[in-house]
Write a structure and sequence with these properties.
Chain lengths: 381, 317, 341, 259
């Protein structure tokens, strides 16, 4: 009997825990608007979300510290990077009338949530959704008019990456490794197209599922490749590069913006990462602004990550709009879509949007090289 | 299908496959020991591995103040640092394993015959550990300093025999021999075998079950901890989600070899390491886990208890 | 006496006559259909629309939990790859919508049939294995389906399939972005049908066969139960429910990709079944509702919500090892097999 | 009693690794008789049950049921043909009621399956009703009908033993194999069980019985076969077997009532 009472008490406690104890915080004054972040904050993909949302939080903190008339709050929409949750989370963001703009992290969940954002006319500025179809008018995923992104799409980055990777290499024989994420698959496609006959062979090692790249490296050796391009993210990219060099590979290693992270040379090792070539439509926060990097480190006791700069910039785009008095969804969307819109990003580059939502101009690709364990900007790609 | 890589790089792939296989073998111990005694899939073992891998790195960085950019060590310093890392990983994993048994399994064992309950409890533990570490590490990967330089000792048929992979193989073999002797010769080991053969009778015979079970979890945890040390030594990086990747592979290995006995874990681990390596070379890395599963299914269809499985299925009517 | 929901409910049911039973069932069904009215109350989910949550995750997961319950709860077959059938259903919807003009209701039977077929093929191959071996093999099957989809550019590879059409307007009910309520009602109807079928099966020969297999497979076979056939039936039936859930999900979400169908879904559904009370329909429904609802309800503590989910699993399993509403103890109450007339 | 054989074992050998649990055993059970199978522990008695019911496939030899070979037959098919058994350690479906335990066994001859049950077809309804009636009838016959709605695991030990027999009878067998049905019973319980077994025989079932209690065996058996170390050493009327020197020798080494 006693046990049963205990058990019943536990159920009540569990229910209370889930329902009562955490009363929703709903207070929102009239002078407050929200910027939403939809991305993976928990689960296996949480790294990307954690790195990005800190950029968002930092930008909002800096803004709110100036005591503006309209205060800004963040709406954290955790989709776990899961396409299935993208739709529900997107609908939730759209349902909160205070939200006037949203940053979406991954292409898949963005596409899943797109119908909600379109229906409610909420502007998206994505710091990291690079799938080409989102800005392709012929695609079913076309995000116009709500979708914008401040990362280059894969079709722009692909040729740049191919060019940088093979630059100065006589008779390039290129081996491309992707990580099977939709970002990587899209980039790989564009890279292969740009490489033409220089492309020799490739392999796919699913993100976070492969520790040992020996078989891939065996293929690279067999193909006698002198250029290796990795199209995934930095953690696996570093693991791969380290093993590649340890097994005596002497050729070029190049990678895209997924790898652009200050942790990359550290994880890959100083010796192994030396000379690695990277391309990205942006710059790491450390390079873009040491001042903001210092603030970031102070606030979060951690290093900035992939897309931190982009998230910071995307948030600032909305904040710039709010400063300009665009505090409704319709105004914000019209503001971003107007021909006169421009924004000077953290690295000092002025950006504009095309009608499709992509950045206009193709001169935004930068190239980087790893020297002595740090990533150095190496000019335009 | 392209066999040219396989033929071209056969020795290299084989050596790498065996080295990877030994890491699977050691993690598989955590599954197989517990399964042998309790007929229970110790789902949380993957997180025991994850904790061990972090412990390995933290011993090097916090206890010995190395950083990720530290230079390799040599001589006596290398030996005691590495030993401390191994011991640290084994202690953390061993203790974690024992605590998991107490938290997730012990109470349930006496209260229900439904083994799925324990499974869900273990999944709960798994989620809690992985999420706690994720929050503590901000979801970031953690790199390990290279304390043991990856010197190439010899080249055999085109395969580089590297000191770190060789270390894995040699130490794993020593550990397995010690464990085999322990289980077959020591008093406690006999107890484990007795419980594994007949749980109920052993209880009636007055064997202290909780002690035996804790010991089993401890041994499984120690093996898994050693695996995490070797994993870090070779791959030098970990993150909160590493448990799932390696745990699933090791569990597959345990079943492939015949879950519940140490020799099965050995055979299954090596087989899986080789299968993964060869499949990656022939079909592409994206097909490696599918190939492993297909082979597992085929093996079980023809040998329902795995390669070395004892005949658990024989109906005890 | 402490209040015991299961026994109270079962006693109430047992002591009711035919008309009272219709009344009870009617009240429950009407109540379930009226759930969207609770939007805005304390039950509201803070960051996701409540009615949308009622459809996915709650409705879809309840449906899948009911299907898996037949496999795991009733027959005792540990299936760790149930997501495979969900994926087959969803991909059937995606592929057929790409290449044909069939609408959701026409695709539904195809999706169910293909899921059943895959259940049959897998089951026929592996159901001779027992217990834990079955677990790893089914787990592998789930991964095989997911990775094959990931590696196949014909179904979009990692990008998946987008713009899967919503169902057509049916009997005046529209199905578009705004009609969360109608989707919820559809999944509710499927849930009710599934419950009715499972109840029918449980009280009759297949239910007894499954129950006997779960309790002692050797003896069941020696008592004349064709264990292989009934295990296969359980598998195929479970698969059909998973397939239906997949078709429905795809037509609402309009977008599917391989990473939706990962192994965690299988584990989650299994957790619902065990948490609620294996083998008991109401327990499973309750468990699935609660566990798919809690993470949505506590979204505002987003950083720690999965951690809390894990803790809830451990605590509840330790306090109530047989689930919230365990399999009913049928003695005394007198709902013996075949009582339903 | 006739001499028409229901069950015949012809030179059956069952080998486990190096151990021969049964060695060239010949045994014939005739229609309508109670045949007892006795022998010291480990003599291979339960193994006989296991090879007959298909749990083990004999290494060598042939088993005939009504003249038809059981070779390659699934266990459930063998049950359907008319062979039912009980178990040395009670193995009921503990979480089913007594009634359900028996109905599950009666299902073996039913035709309706999954689809019929879902649609609740007239045949399914008819079979369900018939199964319930038959199960009640058998429980009544075994004297435990008052237990029909109780979970099997909650039954008193003696009633569990009876329920096992009831469940076996539920399959409408021609022959029932009873594996130590009186194990753990006190003398008065044994006596009533003996009467019950005779009643079962008188109902037309053939009985093959494993038992240690000699007085019970000698009281009710029509014939007694003795196994020792996997070999049949005697097979005759009870009174004859009792005085067989080989049998006495086999039993002297091992206490007869060890169970």
């Amino acid at each position: 009997m006693n046990k049963k009472i205990k058990a019943s008490a536990a159920i009540v406690a569990a229910l209370a825990l889930s329902l009562g104890a955490f009363a929703a915080n709903t207070a929102s004054a009239a002078t407050t608007v929200k910027i939403a972040y939809q991305g993976p904050l928990t689960g296996p993909e949480a790294q990307t979300g954690t790195d990005s949302i800190r950029g968002v939080k930092l930008a909002i903190k800096i803004y709110n510290a100036t005591n503006p008339a309209v205060k800004v709050e963040i709406f954290e929409g955790d989709d776990q990077g899961d396409d299935a949750q993208g739709g529900t989370v997107g609908a939730g963001i759209a349902a909160d009338d205070a939200v006037i703009g949203v940053l979406t992290a991954y292409s898949g969940p963005t596409i899943a949530a797109l119908p909600s954002y379109k229906a409610k006319g909420i502007a998206i500025v994505s710091p990291s959704a690079t799938r080409a179809s989102l800005t392709d008018p012929t695609s079913k995923d076309y995000g116009n008019p709500v979708f914008h992104r401040i990362v280059s799409n894969d079709d722009l980055q692909g040729p740049a990456l191919a060019r940088v990777a093979t630059n100065g290499v006589k008779d390039p024989t290129v081996f491309v490794v992707d990580d099977q994420s939709s970002y990587s698959v899209g980039l790989t496609k564009a890279v292969k197209l740009a490489l033409g006959t220089a492309f020799q062979a490739g392999d796919s090692a699913a993100k976070g599922a492969v520790s040992d790249f020996s078989a891939t490296i065996a293929k690279i050796k067999k193909e006698k490749a002198n250029v290796v391009i990795y199209t995934g993210y930095y953690a696996d990219g570093a693991k791969f590069l380290k093993q590649l060099r340890d097994k005596g590979y002497k050729g070029v290693y190049a990678a895209g913006d997924g790898v652009l992270n200050s942790q990359f040379p550290k994880l890959a090792g100083k010796k192994q990462s030396e000379g690695a070539r990277l391309t990205a439509p942006t710059v790491p926060l450390e390079v873009a602004s040491p001042k903001i990097t210092a603030m970031f480190k102070k606030d979060f006791k951690a290093d900035p990550g992939v897309y931190t700069t982009e998230a910071f910039d995307a948030t600032n785009i909305f904040l710039q709009g709010i400063k300009a008095g665009k505090t409704t969804r319709a105004d914000m969307l019209a503001y971003l879509n107007s021909a006169s819109f421009s924004y000077k990003n953290t690295a000092g580059i002025t950006i504009k949007f095309q009608e499709s939502g992509d950045l206009s101009g193709s001169g935004l690709m930068n190239q980087f090289v790893v020297k002595g364990g740090t990533i150095k900007l190496n000019g335009k790609a | 299908m392209d066999f040219s890589v396989l033929t071209d790089q056969f020795a290299s792939l084989t050596f790498d496959g065996i080295a990877l296989g030994f890491i699977y073998v050691l993690i598989a111990l955590g599954y197989t020991m517990v399964y042998g005694v309790l007929r229970l899939i110790n789902f949380a073992n993957s997180e025991v591995f994850m904790l061990g891998s972090f412990a390995t790195i933290l011993v090097a960085t916090k206890l010995f103040n190395h950083t990720i950019e530290s230079d390799p060590l040599t001589g006596f310093k290398l030996v005691y640092t590495m030993t401390a890392m191994l011991v640290g990983a084994m202690i953390v994993s061993g203790v974690a394993s024992v605590i998991i048994e107490i938290v997730a399994y012990r109470r349930l064992r006496s209260r229900t015959s439904n083994r799925l309950t324990s499974l869900i409890s273990a999944i709960g533990v798994s989620i809690v550990l992985a999420e706690a570490v994720r929050m503590a590490t901000s979801s970031a990967p953690m790199g390990s300093p290279r304390l043991l330089d990856k010197t190439i000792l010899a080249t055999v048929w085109g395969a580089d025999i590297r000191v770190d992979t060789l270390l894995v193989i040699v130490f794993a073999i020593i550990l397995l021999i010690v464990l085999d002797l322990f289980v077959n010769k020591s008093r406690l080991g006999m107890g484990i075998r007795a419980v594994s053969m007949d749980y109920d009778t052993s209880r009636l015979m007055g064997i202290n079950l909780n002690k035996i079970i804790s010991t089993t979890f401890l041994i499984g945890g120690l093996g898994t901890g050693a695996a995490s040390f070797f994993y870090i030594t070779v791959y030098e990086m970990t993150r909160f989600s590493i448990g799932f990747e390696l745990g699933l592979a090791a569990f597959t290995a345990a079943v492939l070899g015949g879950i519940g006995n140490i020799r099965g874990a050995f055979a299954g681990g090596i087989a899986l390491g080789l299968i993964e390596m060869y499949a990656s070379a022939v079909l592409g890395t994206q097909w490696r886990s599918i190939t492993a599963f297909v082979i597992l299914i085929l093996v079980l269809l023809f040998k329902p208890n795995g390669i070395f499985g004892e005949s658990l299925q024989q109906a005890r009517v | 006496m402490p209040f015991n929901l299961r026994d109270t409910g079962a006693t109430l049911w047992a002591n009711s006559n035919k008309w009272q039973r219709y009344l009870i069932a009617g009240v429950i069904i009407v109540g379930a259909f009226a759930l969207p009215l609770l939007e805005g109350t304390f039950l509201n989910t803070p960051r996701t629309p409540f009615v949308s949550v009622l459809f996915y995750p709650i409705g879809v997961y309840v449906l899948m939990a009911l299907g898996l319950n037949v496999v795991v709860g009733k027959s005792g077959l540990l299936d760790l790859g149930y997501v495979a059938f969900y994926a087959v259903g969803a991909y059937t919807a995606g592929i057929l919508s790409m290449h044909t003009k069939l609408n959701t209701w026409e695709i539904l039977p195809v999706g169910i049939a293909l899921a059943m077929l895959s259940g049959f093929v897998l089951g026929a191959a592996v159901l001779r294995l027992r217990g834990d071996y079955l677990a790893i093999v089914t787990l592998g099957f789930g991964e095989i389906i997911r990775i094959t989809a990931l590696n196949s550019s014909a179904v979009g590879g990692a990008n998946g399939i987008s713009n899967i059409p919503n169902p057509p307007t049916t009997f005046g009910f529209t199905f578009d972005l705004e009609s969360d309520r109608n989707y919820y009602w559809v999944v509710l109807i499927l849930i009710i049908i599934t419950i009715l079928i499972i109840r029918g099966l449980s009280a009759r020969r297949p239910g007894r066969a499954w129950e006997s297999i779960r309790q002692d497979e050797d003896v069941a076979e020696l008592m004349g139960v064709n264990t292989y056939k009934y295990k296969l039936w359980a598998f195929v039936f479970g698969a059909s429910v998973g397939g239906a859930a997949g078709v429905l999900f795809a037509s609402k979400a309009m977008f599917i990709a391989p990473n939706i169908f990962n192994y965690n879904i299988s584990i989650l559904i299994l957790a619902f079944v065990v948490f609620g009370g294996m083998g008991n329909i109401w327990g499973v429904v309750f468990g699935a509702v609660l566990l798919s609802y809690i993470p949505e309800r506590i979204r505002f503590i987003s950083e720690a919500r999965m951690l809390i989910f894990g803790l809830v699993l451990i605590i509840m399993m330790n306090l109530r090892p047989d689930g919230l509403l365990p399999r009913k103890k049928r003695e005394k109450i007198g709902i013996a097999g075949g009582e339903i007339k | 009693m006739s001499n028409q054989p229901v069950l015949e074992l012809k030179n059956v050998t069952m080998q486990f690794g190096g151990v021969k649990a049964l060695n060239q055993v010949n045994l014939q059970v005739n229609k309508g008789e109670i045949c007892a199978l006795i022998g010291p522990n480990g003599a291979g008695k339960t193994t006989v049950f296991n090879v007959v019911t298909g749990v083990y496939v004999p290494t060598d030899g042939e088993i005939l049921f009504n003249g038809k070979s059981l070779k390659g037959k699934n266990r459930h098919k063998i049950t359907k043909m008319g062979i039912a058994r009980t178990f040395q350690n009670v193995r009921l479906f503990g979480e089913m009621t007594s009634l359900e335990n028996v109905i599950t066994a009666t299902d073996v001859h039913n035709k309706s399956g999954l689809v019929g049950s879902i649609l609740n077809t007239p045949r399914s309804r008819r079979e369900e009703k018939a199964g319930r009636e038959k199960a009640h009838e058998i429980l009544k016959f075994m004297g435990i009908d008052h237990r029909s709605d109780q979970l099997a695991k909650n039954l008193p030990y003696g009633d569990q033993r009876r329920l096992e027999i009831a469940r076996a009878l539920g399959t409408s067998p021609e022959i029932v194999l009873l594996d130590e049905p009186a194990a753990g019973f006190n003398p008065s319980e044994k006596k009533s069980l003996a009467e019950l077994i005779v009643k079962i025989r008188d109902r037309g079932y053939t009985v093959l019985l494993i038992e240690h209690d000699m007085s019970l065996i000698m009281g009710i058996s029509d014939r007694v076969a003795v196994l020792d170390f996997g070999e049949k050493i005697a097979d005759d009327l009870p009174s004859v077997v009792q005085n067989n020197p080989k049998v006495i020798e086999a039993y002297l080494g091992v206490p007869a009532d060890a169970s």
